[in-house]
User: Fold this.
Amino acid sequence: METSVTLQRAIELACLETIGRKTETVQLDDAAGRVLATNLPSKVDDPRFDNSAMDGWAVRVADCKAEGTTLSIVGTSKAGGEASPEVGTGEACRIMTGAPVPEGADAIVMVEDSEEVGNTVRILGPARPGYIRKRAENLQVGQEALEKGTHLGPAEISLAATMGHGEIEVVVRPKLAIISTGDELIPPGDELAAGQIHESNSYGIAVLIEKMGGQAIRYDVVHDTIDGLRATLDSAARECDAILTSGGVSMGKWDLVRRLMEEEGNLSFWRVKIRPGGPPLFGTWKETPLFGLPGNPVSSHVGFISLVAPWLSHCMEAHSENGPSLADRVRVKLTEGIKGAPGKLCMRRIRIEAGEDGMTASVHTHQGSGNIHSMVAHNGLTLLPPDTDAEPGDIIDALWCR
Ligand code: AMP
Ligand code: MG
Assistant:
């Protein structure tokens, strides 16, 4: 077991214990938010044929040199319609956006630049070859425009549809158990007695898991007894691919997750050099990977974003750039000084704003690791290296959380 490891070492150690990656085929309608399991080749050229980018007239450029030229109308090309007549010298074919460009035509005149007179049309504006969208200018048959490991969002889903895939192979959503521990925790909505608080971590962590393309299974809160915790870990190990606990990993007498993992589990590391959220642990319980996240709400979220998310991406073989991610690395200019942490990577909450001179970051609420409101009032985390304070005006690395 290693103690007080860097975040990078923690991720490395966790990635030694992965969960089996399985794949399944789903309808495109059910694919949003999932991770693509294979490279996806296009079944079609896009566009499939030369077509018009405008409503107007398919013409020959050579015929339209002089303004006011009159061309005779030979027919109409409609999107999805039948083959249209060829356009010869002195002729024009009415054309709709997306309709095939008739043989013989090499440019489009916008309808706004024309005047129809009986069976003829007067050309009053430019004939533009650029208004023809060329066959396969976007994609060619066989081109793997979506790569394995891509997180499927709106544009990716549309692209899969464009390429002709009604169903696709995705990574089976890893099932992650979330177990909150603590005698004081009561579900939101229930009455609180003296000393009790609402349990919140499992709800937020569940959203983070689902955002990554995983499946969150929230267990009832476990009270601070070794037997209760052991029984819940046993069920979770049977039912899920991995376990996330919240609370009970510090030095306190009631920090039972740490105690139980030390005595009966298989600990890989305890404590990571990050602030907030220093005491997370990782290991296996009955062969099932287990992250013990701290109970403080900000710490549990930051622990997930910085430690669990990279591990989960690795398990799903997510794409390094296009895979699911909860934060983007950016450079920001600080509007105020920020204190770092001795010996630890410091992830203070910051509000990142795009201004005239680039991205700036400022601090708005109390930074305590118990204050989950600070994760709402801010949209980023500093990445201040250990033992580094930042001055106003400094440009630093940060995570821009989505
Ligand atoms: P612990 O890590 O168990 O010592 O908890 C640290 C702090 O976080 C304590 O103030 C707990 O009351 C609080 N806490 C622990 N678990 C949760 C939870 N699931 N939801 C909200 N607060 C929690
Ligand atoms: Mg506790």
Remarks:
- The CA atoms of residues 333 and 395 lie 4 Å apart.
- The chain has four domains: 2-22+172-315, 25-43+141-171, 51-133, 327-401.
